[in-house]
Amino acid sequence: MKGEVxxxxxxxxxxxxxxxxxxxxxxxxxGLCADTGTTFGVVSKASQTISFIGFKQGLTTGQxxxxxxxxxxxxxxxxxxxxxxxxxxxxxxxxxxVRSLLSVRSRVAHKGCFGRVLCIGGxxxxxxxxxxxxxxxxxxxxxxxxxxxxxxxxxxxxxxxPEIMAIGWQDSLNTVVDKLTWSDVVVLGPGLGTSxxxxxxxxxxxxxxxxxxxxxxGLNLLAKAPDYRENRIITPHPGEAARLLxxxxxxxxxxxxxxxxxxxxxxxxxxxxxxAGSLIYDGDTLWICTCGNPGMATGGMGDVxxxxxxxxxxxxxxLAEAAYVGVWIHSRAADLCAQSGERGMLVSDLFPFIRQxxxxx
Length: 361
Description:
Distance between the termini: 44 Å
Shape: globular
Mean pLDDT: 95
Low-confidence stretches: none
Strand content: 5-15%
Radius of gyration: 21 Å
Helix content: 25-40%
Order of helices and strands: HEEHEHEHEHEHEHEHEHEHHHEEEHHH
Largest sheet: 10 strands, mixed
């Protein structure tokens, strides 16, 4: 389809949407773009969608969740024949993929085996962001987790979570250099802010030649001083992606697949474009995670994701693996948590489920 749905068809779709009987969309809900997940005006709202031969990527992200209902796939006997003709445009992140990468730990393992992760952020009034990110890092299995934050925040973090080594920083360059030297992985941005304090830390840290996860205000500062790095994971939501690309949010959401490709071309490394149907792209392969629910629309969710990904990098996962496994664990934990209800779900409610999911069964 191209362009808006014709008026006569739009009238029929509107009539269907007014009915109380179940609606099954055959292949694609009418009015939804099978390639991008954007809408062409009015869209039929299905209770189930069954996609044939190849599962359409547009059914997995963007506005698709609003219209597809439960999604099913039937290859109509094509199976491997189709794969011999056409390479997949993307891969669906599945539990089996994640489980295959979560090995049982050695019985003689010690904390030095699982990474030293440094989380940087928490400007005035945003202590919670760096606390959530660092605790998620520890809960996801990092060997050692340390924090550089505002001096006023350090004590509260240590009091509530003594396993995290929090350092208050004001203007001592040696402190930052020492901790960067100590670390294996850096998580930069949760609650960092854009004041002189945050900008100074960003300037000192974001060029460090170590695997790095950049999120939140780290992304906003990166948008002002763009650079290209191969050993970095960036995790923008649509608003941050728009700033990084200097376009509108509507343009990002109109074609999330094109947006993530542009982000990776401009910034390098691995990109996680968050949202309903999060996308992960490393320049060669695209992954899609369809776990997650609207209960995740609350403050701090992105901070927890950055901590999980940082922990996986510390445990030796490759950049792309850490990104798509981290996204799945985060989203799946939210789905398990939402069994008690989506509304009112807090990001800290996810921690018991994160711990459950990072351990192999």
